[in-house]
Structures are given as structure tokens and as C-alpha cells.
Write a structure and sequence with these properties.
This protein is mainly beta. It has strands at 2-4, 8-17, 22-27, 32-41, 54-59, 63-72, 77-82, 87-96, 112-117, 121-130, 135-140, 145-154, 167-172, 176-185, 190-195, 200-209, 228-233, 237-246, 251-256, 260-269, 273-278, 289-294, 298-301.
Amino acid sequence: LNVSGGAQVRLERAALERNRAAGVLARKGGTVLTATDLVVSDTRGQESDGGFGFGAQVSGGARVTLERAVLERNRTVGLVALDEGTVLTATDLAIMDTLASLAQATYGLLGTGLWAFSSAQVTLERAVLERNAEIGLNITGEGAALTATDLLVSDTHSWLADGRAGAATFVWGGATASVERVRILDNQGYGLRVQGAGSTVRVADLAIERTMEQTCAVGLCTHMEAGFGLTSVSGATLEVRRFRSIDNAAVGVLVASGSELDLHEGIVSGNRIGANVQINDYDLGRLQDQVVYVGNDVNSDTTRFELSEAPETLNVVPPEHP
């Protein structure tokens, strides 16, 4: 389905299966797509090189509203929103089992559930992102913004080819997010990672549990293999209220490299390290406002881990269609 040039389309009870390059394209200012009871599945890469295979792309200032939508077993990105003026609103959304691009299979790149960048605005209400490769939810770059309530991100795994990367929810490069009632469960790498100057996230009613280490192939990971619950690094700002970060493989909460982390009303338990603080003279009171640290091997630690780099922002825009 290709909606562009200011067209306005309403779609009800539709299944788009086994298409090439992208199942749904909505592009350019004035374009409006409203879809209810939609399934987009098994989108294949383009014939020339196997690249792309998106479930859906919203770009160029288009506005898309999804209600009761499932995007599953697509390639590269399940749902991508980009460009200033682009608005995506989704209620009762599921994005599952997104696979790596065949064109990048050697490197295992992408396989992201939902990716918003280049100033796109995304609002989610009751959304599930499960079993995606690399990143479940990726909000990237200045101007990109996420507002979400009742969110589940689970079983995100490392890159299939070599076991690197992996993050359930990643907000970076100056993007912002405001999230309420979110569960981040059984992911590899990072639970919630906020990175970069200007990146700002505020979360209330959060559960991060059982974040696992990456499964790096021998010799490929020069950094610590993660297993981190909450992470604020490289100048980011993260504020969390009413939360738990428990049973993560390495660290419950981490703040490093000029970042801000403020915690209120929570529990950090069952981690190898409760709080890892890599900033000299950081005010530990900011991590202790009605926060209980219990059952960790070490409740507080200042070890400076080498953290993995942010993923590259690849060209994920398919060629223009006639």
C-alpha cells in the first residue's frame, strides 16, 4: 500500500502479506492514513539486494493513525517514522519478530521493532514490542519524540550474526521521551538506555527485569557485555518515578560521562551491582529518594566500564516509487 502526495485513505480489516521492500508507505505532507484492524506481515526485501523489507514507513510529513495493528516477521524495521512534520499515533499496537535485513545479514544490522528519527513525533497507547532483533524501540536524533502509555518491550535479542548490541528501549542523539506504565522484560544488552547530550527521558511506573548480557562471538565485544537495567550516559538526562530494576545480569542503574539520573520511589534488587556511578562526586542522594537497594552483590560501585557504541543510523528510506 503506497499512500502519498496528499492522499487521504481509510483502511479497515486489511491484511498485507509477503510484499517487497515495504508493506505500507505513507509519505509527504498532507498525506493521511487511518487504519484499523490491520496486519502487515512477512514483508520481503527488495529483489535487487534483499534490503529493506519494512512493515510500514511514515515519512515526509505524513500523518498515520493505527488502531489494533499487528506488524510481524518483517525485515530491517517493523515500523519506521521519520522527518519533520511526520506524526504517528498508534493504539493497541503489536510489533513482533522483526528480522535483520538480508542485505546486511553478514553484519546482523537492524531488525528494530519501531524506529523514530529526524524529528518524527510518535504517540503509543497500549503497545507490545516482542522478540525483535537489535532494538525494540529506538528514538533517535534532535526533534524526535515519543509519548507512550502501557508499553511492553520484551525478549529483544542481540544481533543475530555476531551477538553484539541489543537494547529494549534506546533514546539517543538528542531525542526525548515521556513514558508511563512500561514493562521491559527479558531483553539482552540494555533495558532502558538514554545516551547523548539533549536526550531526555521521563518515566513513571516502570519495571525492568532480567536484562541479560549480550551473546558476543569470541573477540567481538571489547566493551562489557551489558546486562544493564537503567542507563544514562554521554550527557543524557533520565528521571524515573515508581520503578523496579531487578535481576539484571550486571547493573541495576548506571550513570556515566556527564549525565543526569534521578530516581524516586523504587527498588533495585538482585543485580550484580545495584548502582554503578561513573561520575566523580555525583550526588548519591539523587539515586536514593525512597529507593531501596537490597539483595545486590554490591549495592554501589564506581567501576568504569567501557560501554558499547550507539548503532549507526543507516539509510532506511526505500527508493521513491513512481
